[in-house]
Amino acid sequence: MKLLVTGGAGFIGANFVRYVRQHHPAVRMIVLDKLTYAGNRANLAGVLSDQVQLVVGDICDATLVEQLMAQVDACVHFAAESHNDNALRDPQPFLESNVIGTYTLLEAARRYDVRFHHVSTDEVYGDLPLATSDTAARKFTPESRYLPSSPYSATKAASDMLVHGWTRSFGVRATLSNCSNNYGPYQHIEKFIPRTITNILAGRRPKLYGTGRNVRDWINTADHSAAIWAILTRGRIGETYLIGANQELDNLTVMQQILEAMGQPHDAFDLVADRPGHDRRYAIDASKLTHELGWHPQMTDFRAGLRQTIQWYQSHEAWWAPQKAAVEAEYAEHQQ
Ligand code: NAD
Ligand code: DAU
User: CA-to-CA distance for 12 and 77, rounded, in angstroms?
Assistant: First the structure.
């Protein structure tokens, strides 16, 4: 099998490429990545070879996309602008990459009859109320209504709709997955967990938005990779699968677990202004994936996964340190 992996030099894409290399070494891959601020050739260090090739380019470039699609059996589409705070400052690149980019790939997949897997997010469903005895059992399911709250999630919702439309009307052999918050190695330091870890490592106080009561449902990115592989190879065409590991935690708890694991006092952080439109709670019901495809998360001890992630950032300072000052200056400019 030969795969086109878009966004394979980003966080989840690079972890997926590494997962496939390790578990399915006969698979050949072309990574198509624009190397935006979030993409990094170093994320594929030790993986690039005759078998895994990196093409630096834009998923909106129809000529290039067609050329690559003509060479592969399947496409796993990760490439996107992915950070909510950036979308609040400037949504335009999100429309380009997430909407036009997905459209461009779907047109090429249609032309060359390439199996297509679209990687999406639980944020397309908006948010859930914070858990009380009445609402704790509520989770997103594949039947949940699309109700995105942010510019980022609105563009991801639009891209999901394009996938549905191209599957139904043009017969594109597509599947779709909506996953909860990932953590693990190679995640850009703009995101909550790596930002917090690297702030502590760099002697800066980490920042907690609003009250810290917002809840995210954390999954280790290795489990996300395994789920995507299961859907790509055994999922039913036209279906949506939700991916999550049942690890709901509020942000204050995650902050305090990181501080504790790094030997810091529990209150060694700053509360800062809340994110506009901040989604309250995400929670995933992944039972369709577990029942149909037998997938189960392996990394179910969040504290252990967090310790591994902290160790990764401790031992990869050269990977993140050059960007630290600029990322924090950007946050400071927008008072977060
Ligand atoms: P990321 O920002 O770390 O990586 C995105 C990658 O896409 C980068 O390498 C970037 O260079 C590339 N890219 C962006 N625009 C491009 C373009 N126009 N052409 C080619 N390449 C382009 O993102 P991530 O966190 O790895 O997310 C990957 C995918 O997974 C996204 O589609 C995101 O919506 C989805 N997702 C993310 C999470 C999460 O928790 N991070 C959860 C669920 C779904
Ligand atoms: O749910 C899946 C989504 O998870 C993906 O689709 C997105 O691509 C991914 O970025 C992530 O979105 P979030 O907005 O949930 O992730 P982020 O890491 O930006 O923030 C996680 C939570 O932590 C959120 O409630 C905001 C809060 N936060 C974030 C930062 C950067 C803080 O409290 N402090 C911070 O410094």
Answer: 11
- Ligand 2 in reach of 107 Cβ (< 6 A): no
Indicate if ligand 1 lies below 6 Å from the C-beta of 248. Answer: no
**List of domains in the chain:** 2-188+218-246+282-301 (3.40.50.720)
Ligand nearest to the CA of 16: 1
Evaluate whether 1 touches 27 at the Cβ level (below 8 Å): yes
Alpha-carbon distance 129 to 4, whole Å?
A: 38
For the Cβ of 224 lying below 6 angstroms from any atom of ligand 2, the answer is no
Report the 10 Å Cβ neighbour count for 203. Answer: 6
CB 87 within 8 A of CB 150: yes
* 299 three-state secondary structure: coil
Annotated catalytic, 239?
Answer: no
**Catalytic residue flag (residue 152):** yes
Kindly state if the Cβ of 115 falls inside 6 Å of ligand 2: no
Which atom of ligand 1 is closest in space to residue 191's alpha carbon? 41
> How far apart, in whole angstroms, are the C-alpha atoms of residue 79 and residue 58?
9
pTM of the model: 0.98
- Protein residue with least CA distance to atom 34, ligand 2: 208
Specify whether 223 is catalytic: no
Q: What is the ipTM of this complex?
A: 0.99
**Ligand index nearest the alpha carbon of residue 211:** 2
CA of 233 to the centre of ligand 2 (A): 30
* pLDDT tens, the chain, 336 aa long: 999 999 999 999 999 999 999 999 999 999 999 999 999 999 999 999 999 999 999 999 999 999 999 999 999 999 999 999 999 999 999 999 999 999 999 999 999 999 999 999 999 999 999 989 888 889 999 999 999 999 999 999 999 999 999 999 999 999 999 999 999 999 999 999 999 999 999 999 999 999 999 999 999 999 999 999 999 999 999 999 999 999 999 999 999 999 999 999 999 999 999 999 999 999 999 999 999 999 999 999 999 999 999 999 999 999 999 999 999 999 999 875
